[in-house]
Structures are given as structure tokens and as C-alpha cells.
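At this stage, I wrote out one protein's amino acid sequence and its C-alpha cells, and that material follows here:
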Amino acid sequence: MDTTKKRGVFSKGLDGIERVGNKLPHPVTLFFLFAAMVVLASALGSALGWSVENAEGETIGVFNLLSSEGILYMFESAVTNFTGFAPLGTVLVTMLGIGIAERSGLISAALKALVTSVPKQLLTAALVFGGIMSSMAADAGYVVLTPLGAVLFAGLGRHPLAGLAAAFAGVSAGFSANLLVTSLDPLLGALTIEAASTYDASYAEGMNILMNYYFMIASVIVLTIVGTLVTEKIVEPRLGTYKGEGSDAEGENMKEVTPAEKKGLWMALLSIIVTSGLISLLVVPSWGPLRAGLPNDEILSAPFFQTLVPILFIFFLIPGFVYGLVTKTIRNDKDVANQMSDTMATMGMYIVLAFAAGQFVAYFNTSNLGQIFAYNAAGWLGNAGLEGMLLVLGFMFVVGVINIFIGSSSAKWAFMAPVFVPIMMELGYAPELTQVLYRIADSTTNIISPLMPYFAIVIAFAQKYDKKVGIGTLISTMIPYSIVFSIVWTIMLLIFMYTGIDLGPGANVFYSR
């Protein structure tokens, strides 16, 4: 049989992307090269006088990293660029808790219980759904669900990278969707309302931060189905059968749960319930320190949402510790310390990646190159004279391109909203629709952007199963999700647009004075 023909043009194209991408240097080397390129580009841009004017009328120029001040900055900031790299603390602190849950045997036993009790046909969907819903816990899904997806698939005898990809797609490409209100809703909504008020203040007064809520609820269901199909029909068949080291052992370990493990799981579950109750006392009552006395309509601004990392640490540490005591895998405090230490030892490659990526991200932000490019791209689209569907698609394309250079969703929207919300209102499109377009384009391109902060840790997790995994492997694996999510999400939006379904409470698609 001619397997080459059977794979088809699309699959062969992904293979080509993987080959080219994996011929690039090691990700650590690549980030250092990116940093060097930014330094050189900053010198060139400064010499040529690259600059833009922001929404406040301030001129933003290129900061020359090869100037005396720039060189001093690079030396003085080297340590803080590393320690201040956004995902570093989140990942390491969370992994300390996960390490106890993993090395005590809790995660393995829980997965065995899951595999033996849940229909295998639903596991992929459950993984994608869990990833989408994880945006309630900010970026925790990257740290918790992506490695969990790989372990779960390996335990079923399926390719672990397919499980990792399904979780990554849910967490990152489905970031804007959720059944509940997340911190992203007030963050983007406030910027949209402010931008709309510059064009029509009376209309802006009637807007609310839940302007996309109905659409995002429907998106959870649609993206879960689509993510499941992409995983099982495209990604997993392309990856083939996993023959990596330890694959047979992992599958063997998933066969049954022993009585001691069952007892440990029940006690761990009881500890989770007790811990949840105690944490709730810190959040739910008005006097709770993690609520800070905020009323219900401002609860999303509570300190609780800024303390999720230590809370996740506790939620893994306590049940892992309890499980270990019950099953005798933890006998004293030395065992706990050793298990944490062993976990940190496995994070060596990620720490090196974080150092290199931290320098690059800091240089790129300090040079102002990203802001200058993004403002120019936004200005080009605003002046292109596009109308109707061409403007809609052009806007989404520009957002996707900018997302490669600026990862923060709120940072991009802070300068794009004042430009595009009034333009779209002038053409008869509601601000609520413009925000939805932005959220779709931003989310679906997260998973194929090597500059996305958590891209490095996903590669590190993948290399546990295949040392040869590089940027090319991950991007080629995630491209099907990006393409299909973009198409299906856009079609879904068109259905909302042309059937007159509100995007959220009182949020129409079209605008008129």
C-alpha cells in the first residue's frame, strides 16, 4: 500500500513543517538567537528612527539595546529577566505540589480509577473540555492538564503527545470560551466599553462585561466536539503508535486499582473536600481575606484570583500527602522533601529554557519593537478601506499575526480596541461583535506561537516522551487545531450574526445610532 498517498497533501504538509521546524537549533539555542536578533534589530530600528504614536498621542521609539544604556540594561536585568519570567514561578511552585501527588502515587492511582470507570470514548472529550474550562484558574491548565493529558493517553496505550496536544488545544486555543465568567471578561470588557464610549457614549452606558457570555457558553460545547474530532481523526493517526521508552510499563500500571490504593484515594478525596471548605471560608464570606470585602458584582477582582498558584500547590500537596501516608509511600517529612527535590530535578531543561526565553521576552518588550509593529499593523488595516466581511476577516488575520509578537491578550486589546471598535461601529458592527472577533483570533493562534510564554514548558513536557521533539513537532501537531478551530468558530459566529442571536445579555451583533 502506498502510505505516502494515503496520508494526503495536508498530512504531508504538516510533515514538511515538522521536518523544517526540527532542523532549527535546540529551543534553548533558538531563544538565545532570537534575543540576539532583537538586539541587532533594535540598533537598526533606532538608527532608522522607527516610531509610532500611541492612542494617548505619545511617541514610542525603538530603544537601542546596543547603546550604552541598552548594554547596561542587559547586564543589570539578566537575573530579573529570568526570575521575572512570567511562567517560571507559576510552573515551579505548582510542580512542587504536583510532585508530591505524583510521587506518592496519587495521580497514577487516580488515573487508573478513571481509566477503569469512564468510557474510553469520552476521555478525549473530557480532556479538551477540562482544558477549555481551566481558564477559570488563569494559566494553571498549562502546568496541570498538558502533562496530565500525556500521562492519561500513555496509560491507555495511546500516543502521549496526542493527549498533550488535546489538552494544550483546550487550554490555549479554547482560552476565551467558558461556561462560567472568567477574569478575562471584565478585563477585555472594560476596554471595549471605554473604546465604544469615544464613538457613542450613550450606547456604551448600556454595555456590560458579559457582552460575549452566550457566545462563549455555546463555544465550549462546539470546541469540545471539534477538539475531540481533530485529536482522534487527524492528530493521533498522524502520530501513529507510540513506541517510546516506558510505554509498555505505563500501560501495564493502569490495569487495576488495589484495595490500598482505593483507601488512599477515598482519604485523598476527603482531604480535598476539607481543604475546599477551608479555602471557601477565605473567599466566600465578605470578611474573607481572599475576598477583601468586595461585593458580588466585583468578585472577579478579588485577591483570590491572584492567589491561585499557591492554592493549586495546596490542592495537590495535601491530598498527595494524605494518600502517601495511607499507602505508606510517605512515612516522614524526609520523604516529602525528597519527593519535592526529585520533581525539581526533572525540571532542569525547563529552567534552562526559561532563562533563555526570559531574556528574549524582556529584550523584545524593552526594545518596543513589538508595540511599533502592532500599531503599524493595526493602522494599516484601519486605513485599508476594507468593508463588511473583508474587514471582519482582515481584522482577525491582523490579530493573529500580532499575537505572535505580543502574548498578553489585554495588552493587545488595550491599543487595538480604541482603533477598531469605533471603525466597526461606523460600519454598523456592534462593539460586542468586535470583541468576539478579537477573542477568537487571539485564542486560536496561541497554540502555534513559539513566543507564547508557555510554549517552552509544553515542549519540555513533550520531551519527556520523545527527546527529539522540537518547535517543528509541536507546531505541526497543533496547526490542525488552529485551522479547524478558526474555521468552525468563525462559522459559528456567522450563524449568530445572521440569525440575530445575542452574543451576551443585551449584546447585539449590529450597531445603529
About this structure: The two ends are 64 Å apart (CA to CA). The mean pLDDT is 83. Residues 471-499 form the longest helix (29 residues).
